[in-house]
Each structure stands twice: as C-alpha cells, then as structure tokens.
Amino acid sequence: MTTSAVIVNPAKIVDLEARRAEIRAGLAAAGWAEPLWLETTPDDPGCGMAEQAVAAGAEVVLACGGDGTVMAVASVLAGTGVALALIPSGTGNLLATNLGVTRDVTAALAVATGGERRRIDVGVVEGAGLFTVMAGMGFDAAMVGETPDDRKARLGWVAYLVTGLRNLRRRRMSLRIRLDGGPWLHRRASTVLVANVGRLQGGIPLLPEAVVDDGWLDVAVLTPRHVTDWLQLAWGVLLRRDRPSRLETFRARQVEVLTDREEPRELDGDVVAPARRLSARVRPGALLLCVPISPRPGA
Predict the structure, then answer these.
(1) Is there a catalytic annotation at residue 262?
(2) Catalytic residue among 17, 59, 262, 263
(3) Do 27 and 94 have their domain in common?
(4) Percent of the chain at pLDDT exceeding 70
(5) Which of 114, 147, 162 is the C-terminal boundary of a domain?
(6) pLDDT per residue as tens digits for the range 52-102
(7) Is the residue at 200 inside a domain?
(8) What is the DSSP string of 239-265?
(9) CATH number at residue 144
C-alpha cells in the first residue's frame, strides 16, 4: 500500500474536518494506507511538516494549500525520490493551473493516486529559497505584498488585479540583467519575472513557450512607461502576439538582476526581503510531481 502524508494549510480551508474526511476517503478508495495528517502553522508554512513526512517514510506528500504551501513542501522534497501531489486550495494555485490540476478535490486526488509522475525543474534564488512557479522583482512583488489576505479570500486572483491597478504608475527600475554569465543588458523596467511556467493568474499566457521540465528558466522584462503601454502590453499578451509591445523575453539557466534601488521581491506569490539583487538558477528535474496522464498521440 502506498504511504502518504497530507500537509494542509488550515487557513485556506473553510471546513477542515470535511476536507480531511474527503481526502482520507479518496485515498482509501485508491487502496492507499491511512495518510499522515500534518497542519502548517503561522511560523512554519510547511517545511518542517515535509521533513517529518520524509522521515516517516512517505512515498507521496499531498500539499493542500496555495502556492506558498506548495513552495515550502517542494523546497524539502526537491532532490529526493518522494513525490509531490497538489490539492489546490489557495488563491493563485499557479503550478497546479499550469499543469492541469483543478481545484476539484476528487479530480486532484485522482491525479495523485492514478496520474503520472514527472520530474520538473525548480528555480533557486540566492539567499531567498526555491520556487516552482516564478520569482519576481518590482511591480509584481509590490502588487503581491500589498494585496490583503481577506481580499484574496473574497475575490481570489482578481484581488491582485485590484491592487495592480493602483500600482500602474509605479516608478520604473533602472536595472542591469545578465544571462548565463554573458554581457550585462541595461533596461528601465517595471518588473522582471524569472519563470518556470508560462501562465499567470487568470490563465494569462505571459510566456507561452515556457516548459516546466526543459531545463531552462524563462525571463520576462516588462517595460511599460504609462497606463496606455500597460493596456497595449496586456492586449498583445492576451492575443498571443509573437512580440507584444513593452515585453522582452529571454531564456537562461542562470539569471542575475541588479537594480538602482532596493525593490520588493516575491517567490511563488510569497513576499521575501526586498533587495537590489535577484540571482536565480535552475535545478533541472529536481522535483518529482504527480501530474495528469498525458493524452496518447492519436487519442
């Protein structure tokens, strides 16, 4: 019988006991053993619980929470043979969204117990930690940091849009960016995103060519100067134009960003200490993840 652990963020669940009963029943129906049940705390978003699950011999760890919970659990499981399964319960759930794992608990459990296991890349930001989705500096991190939790609970990802509108006139950064040790590129930008996946909140396809297991990080440098530029950029991204206005994209295995002033930063939707530097590298195939079964050719 497969041994598992469930790491749940109780703040993201309306009826915790009902969710626990649903998960236990779903795993039992798949023939799995009774899972180890671990709850995160305000002081520990999941790292300590993941370490406990690994020490207990769990073969699969189910993360029931948002992107922050997933990031914390993944930071422990990366580099091990223990698989991570997603039970999306937060605001963005961007890793799950990009890989086709829905918020329906029954469907998510079906992926955990009967889906494929796929090794995906993760990113590591020097001095800050690991990310599975993306790291950001500038506008996006300010937007994340200024969005209240109660608004996210009420509005979901739309809450970020409300805060983002207030930040459209935020002063751009003067920055240098270097890819894989190459020459420094000089830009004035609103935000820099270093991504492992391509879609943002609401399914916005910012980096449609990003692949979660290709061994590369995809980089987006957004350079709008005023509201009209933001509208043109959004329109170009939504229409999937090859080169949307005010958006530059790159690919690299290592990315360094230096700014002229201290800027807010975020990893997978969690704010980290502001700084003038963001240095990220890829760890190819570091995380074993439960994903939906891929369609067979011709099916």
Answers:
(1) yes
(2) 262
(3) yes
(4) 84
(5) 114
(6) 999 999 999 999 999 999 999 999 999 999 999 999 997 778 999 999 999
(7) yes
(8) TT-SS-TTEEEEEESEEEEEEEEEEEE
(9) 2.60.200.40
